[in-house]
Amino acid sequence: MKTHFFTCKLLAGLLLAGIAGTASAQMTINGAGATFPYPIYSKWFDAYAKVDPSVRFNYQSIGSGGGQKQILAQTVDFGASDGPMSDDNLAKAPGKLLHIPTVAGADVVTYNLPGSPTLRLDAETIADIFLGKIKKWNDPKLVALNPGANLPDQEMVVVHRSDGSGTTYIWTDYLSKISPEWKQKVGTNTSVNWPTGLGGKGNEGVAGQIKQTPGALGYVELIYAVQNKMPYADVKNSAGEFVKASLDSITAALATAEIPDDFRFSITNAPGKDAYPISGATWILVYRDQKDPAKGKKMVEFLKWAEKDGEQMAKDLQYAPLPENLQQRVLQRVNEIKY
């Protein structure tokens, strides 16, 4: 009888342990926001499932504007944005929101032309295209910058983001720095009133529109151009050098950044002859005081892993990892999260 009782107890114990294990295995941390870092975040979340099988990340790449809105409304556990939140938006937060920088990347000018020639663009020409002043591919400004390139007598179809987007924030931040007219008429934001062009949803949507539309030109995050085998232009930087977006040229831009204590910074139009001028960082947005202790603990563990081990995966996907000294500062900030 005793043996039977012990066996039942043991089975009940194992069953309970199994139920508890299943319950813990089903913790889901929800996030939403930027499409710019979506490729690297997807890789991190997959890799982290092997590090800690008890947690899963559900990330919706809906654009930085959506990520900021959802973290403010507390409908997600973390937001993601490629533009730092404005003072006005931060003031609306029900608690202290932290900006946790993760990686840096680049916006590139990609296009659909016969033969996919490598083009060179300078700041003035890019501004004129997006202000709607340059309408044809054989415009004298483009021809002067690209002697020898076969530029057709063809209408240019400008493609931009239709959703609130950190990729757009980086793009318009750059244009506002290099064009007084752009700054005055359009400005810097995750979504703006575009003077010209068609909208596409997400980096995926813009890349798709450009691929399907002869004569199209637009901006996407570097990895989307690489993965879709789309050409992208060399851009003249503030030192007067034509630079291709690459790991090295993004890292060179990141190295020049003066990074304040709240980690809200910009690296567009960075100084230095090797810096790619349309580079930007991306952030995870998280509340310092976590409401759910179990989720808060898992979020902190993940962020520490991302800053140490996740950074090593960045280069494979054309993102620049944070410099070592910045990683240390970010880890200190992560330690301030309370749960």
Structure description:
The protein has 339 residues and is an alpha/beta fold. The protein folds into two domains: 27-105 and 281-334, Periplasmic binding protein-like II (D-Maltodextrin-Binding Protein, domain 2); 106-279, D-Maltodextrin-Binding Protein, domain 2. It is 41% helix and 19% strand. The protein contains 13 helices and twelve strands. The chain has helices spanning 2-25, 38-51, 64-73, 87-91, 123-130, 140-145, 166-178, 180-185, 202-212, 222-227, 247-255, 293-308, 324-334, and strands at 27-33, 55-61, 78-81, 97-111, 120-121, 157-161, 198-200, 216-221, 234-236, 242-243, 279-287, 320-321. Strands 1, 2, 3, 4, 6, 7, 8, 11 and 12 form a nine-stranded mixed sheet that branches. A three-stranded mixed sheet has the order 5-9-10. Strand 9 (234-236) and strand 10 (242-243) form a beta hairpin. Helix 12 packs antiparallel against helix 13 (324-334). The longest helix is centred in the N-terminal third of the chain and has 24 residues, at 2-25. It is elongated, with a radius of gyration of 23 Å. The model is unreliable at 1-24 (pLDDT under 50).
